[in-house]
Amino acid sequence: MKNLTNLILSSLLCLSVGNGWAQDxxxxxxxxxxxxxxxxxxxxxxxxxxxxxxxTKNQSKLERLPDFNMGANYGINWGRTIDPTTNNFVTEQLxxxxxxxxxxxxxxxxxxxxxxxxxxxxxxxxxxxELEKAKNDVGxxxxxxxxxxxxxxxxxxxxxxxxxxxxxxxxxxKKLVDAGALPVTxxxxxxxxxxxxxxxxxxxENSYNLAVxxxxxxxxxxxxxxxxxxxxxxxxxxxxxxxxxPGEIYKTAEATMPEIRSAQLxxxxxxxxxxxxxxxxxxxxxxxxxFNTNYSSFADREREIYDGTVPATVPIGYxxxxxxxxxxxxxxxxxxxxxxxxPLGEQFQENIxxxxxxxxxxxxxxxxxxxxxxxxSMLSKYRAEVSSQEVRNQLRQNIETSxxxxxxxxKTHTANQRQVEALEEAFRVTENQFNLGAVNFxxxxxxxxxxxxxxxxxxxxxxxxxxxxxxxxxxxxxxxTF
Length: 482
Fold this sequence. Notes:
Elements: H1 2-18, H2 29-39, H3 41-61, E1 67-77, E2 81-82, E3 89-90, E4 94-108, H4 112-178, H5 184-218, H6 246-256, H7 258-279, E5 284-296, E6 303-318, E7 325-339, H8 344-350, E8 353-361, H9 369-435, H10 441-475
Antiparallel strand pairs: 1-4, 2-3, 4-5, 5-8, 6-7
Helix pairs in contact: 1-4, 2-4, 3-4, 4-5, 4-7, 4-10, 6-9, 7-9, 9-10
């Protein structure tokens, strides 16, 4: 087996150089997963969903604040029109302008704002869990493809070892045939066996190339780019996972897997949506305030400036019989100055008006729309609960299947090890007997092919066992490493 390991390493080095893949740097599994995290479109989509939910979360908190809007207009009128500053009719060109502003604050609306904030926070947390799940899925997929490359490398090395062994036997037989010690049919049989082994090498090389291509595609690396992975030392050892039951593994996974957390958060989100819908039954109390001011070109002319009032006597009539004037004491505006114009700024300042209002809206009948929305939100909550249970069931089934596969893979690997050890000894004996002429080529070929198939099965069982172990480690929350 030591010679086989050395041959594997040398064959892979030659293969990499021959195909133009050799480079100074080799990518580890952790680096491949990091590249996938950066480039994978599913992860990028989940990251964008997370950013959207973050925006929604931040905006929902601002719903507690009042809003404020302003407006302005400017108009020109000809002919008979109303002066907006005096409400009198004028018959000349009139330029007018208006500025207004309004603010509204929702004081109570059935706790809808409060529940919306909580819902947005939960939605953000669920999006975080879904992003984590997307990364887990991508990481597990990359690990599978990475392991598949190593697996096909070992199969290729096994095929190359078998070809080299046959070629060595072919060279020895050729010398014996040339010396007349063996019939030429032995040489022809070995040439046919060598060609068959070469086909196995070609098929294994093609499988290896496809495995590398699949890994490149998962990392979004162009097929023509040079790429080589780091080959870790894979040592099989007893796994503590085998000492656990599927139920124990599930309990750990249930507490750590992001899909479980996300499903539970979606239930809470649906429950808050139900409360928000019910909040529409409650009255809504709001406070609003505003201001308004205007300008008129008709008022922009000479005017008198007043400061308080002064007493005055003014005639109000006369006595018909005597013609005596009747007067009355009144208060008249005290004119202290005159102004040649009434400009825009001063008009806006003097014409401003302010208001505040308290509004109460009580829902009485809206064609049962609120009732229907409450029913839909309740059904959505039930659906979220079903989805959550479905996720839990799927996780449990995956763990149970992976556990059984791991146990079976361990037993298969142990049996394949014994098979290879026995067939290696059988091949050694058959090869010695074939060299001495004690057995024919058919027996030698059968022994060779049996050993090749057994070694291939051992490699397959080894990587199957390793992968099943890593899957269970993943469910236990352990990092994906080799």
